[in-house]
């Protein structure tokens, strides 16, 4: 199996990796994405949109959990909705080093020439310093050392997302407080995976058949008849399926030595994500639905294997 190396929508994992690099720690974004646990599972929103992650978790929680599992502490802060942007606090934090920020609304990040088409998409970046009324930052979507006015930063950073509590969330001053070995990291991660998947099975979405294999099968039948609009189609072909393929591939790599059966299932799922995306791009509804059914079957086997451990 050849590893995937390239672009992908790993904004929070890439940003967390950059933050840790500021203290000389080289942590692969794929490891951070994996052990954070957010990208295990699947759920269908009440608006009938399918996501391949955990409805009881969030990128915010995944960031902090991944750092804890790896033995890092990190300062984290968030403001109540409706409050002013904490400019002074951000300025003080930046004196100590880079600050990871998010979620932000990508439609407000005007240094990105495609921002007019990205409104409502969540994103994470790393602020480096302030210069007058601008902040210099690294954006993992392909924009290092770009500048954004504080007014535009406020617009992006105060945006509300249903899965994120509060606004203006930031992480800074990471510090290594433990040196867990690989066996301990694997143990902590697996315990977390089981816990977060159990939470999803107890969520109201699960009771309504909107999680796991059930959610995917429901969407497969809609896809088979072409009953998705252009916005939903774009969500799958540009984001959900490609990032799902990469996440599953990274889980395959993570499980390779500690759980070969789960590794094989995740590698298979990665291929299914990729094929489903390819069929949907050409609007081959029947072929896309068929592979989505296979994807649901694999998801059920993964969840069953996790519960048995």
Give a description of the structure.
- The protein is an alpha+beta fold and 309 residues long.
- It has 2 domains: 155 residues, Cysteine proteinases (Cathepsin B, Chain A, Alpha-Beta Complex), CATH 3.90.70.10; 127 residues, no CATH class.
- The strands form 2 sheets. A 6-stranded antiparallel β-sheet has the order 3-8-4-5-6-7, sandwiched between helices. A two-stranded antiparallel ribbon has the order 1-2.
- The longest helix is centred in the C-terminal third of the chain and has 26 residues.
- It starts with 10 loop residues before the first helix and ends with a helix.
Provide the CATH superfamily of the largest domain: Cysteine proteinases
The computed structural class is alpha+beta
How would a crystallographer describe the biggest sheet?
6 strands, antiparallel
Shape: globular
Number of strands: 8
CATH fold label of the largest domain: Cathepsin B, Chain A
Question: Roughly what percent helix?
Answer: 40-55%
- Termini gap: 25 Å
**Named CATH architecture of the largest domain:** Alpha-Beta Complex
CATH class type of the largest domain: Alpha Beta
Low-confidence runs of at least 5 consecutive residues: none
Average pLDDT, all residues: 94
The ordered H/E elements are HHEEHEHEEEEHEHHHHHH
Strand order of the largest sheet: 3-8-4-5-6-7
Total number of domains: 2
How much of the sequence lies in strands comes to 15-25%
Radius of gyration: 19 Å
Secondary structure tally, helices: 11
């Amino acid at each position: 199996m050849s590893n995937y190396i390239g672009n992908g929508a790993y904004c929070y994992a890439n940003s967390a990796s950059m933050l840790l690099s500021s203290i000389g720690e080289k942590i692969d974004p794929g490891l951070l994405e994996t052990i954070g646990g957010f990208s295990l599972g699947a759920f269908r929103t009440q608006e009938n949109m399918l996501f391949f992650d955990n409805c009881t978790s969030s990128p915010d929680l995944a960031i902090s959990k991944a750092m804890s599992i790896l033995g890092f502490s990190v300062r984290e802060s968030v403001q109540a909705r409706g409050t002013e942007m904490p400019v002074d606090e951000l300025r003080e934090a930046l004196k100590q080093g880079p600050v990871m920020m998010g979620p932000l609304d990508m439609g407000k990040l005007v240094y990105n020439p495609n921002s007019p088409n990205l409104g409502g998409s969540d994103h994470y970046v790393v602020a480096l310093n302030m210069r007058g009324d601008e902040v210099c930052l690294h954006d993992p979507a392909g924009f290092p050392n770009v500048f954004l006015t504080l007014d535009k930063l406020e617009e992006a950073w105060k945006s509300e997302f249903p899965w994120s509590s509060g606004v203006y969330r930031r992480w800074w001053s990471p510090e290594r407080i433990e040196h867990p070995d690989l066996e301990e990291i694997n143990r902590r991660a697996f315990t977390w995976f089981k816990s977060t998947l159990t939470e999803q099975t107890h969520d109201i979405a699960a009771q309504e058949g909107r999680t796991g294999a059930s959610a995917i099968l429901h969407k497969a039948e809609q896809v088979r008849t072409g009953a998705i609009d252009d916005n939903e189609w774009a969500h799958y072909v540009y984001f959900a399926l490609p990032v799902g393929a990469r996440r599953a591939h990274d889980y395959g790599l993570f499980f390779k030595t500690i759980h070969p059966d789960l590794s094989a299932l995740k590698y298979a799922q990665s291929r299914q994500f990729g094929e489903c995306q390819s069929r949907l791009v050409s609007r081959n509804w029947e072929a896309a639905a068929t592979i989505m059914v296979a994807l649901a079957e694999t998801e059920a086997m993964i969840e069953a294997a996790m519960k048995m451990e």
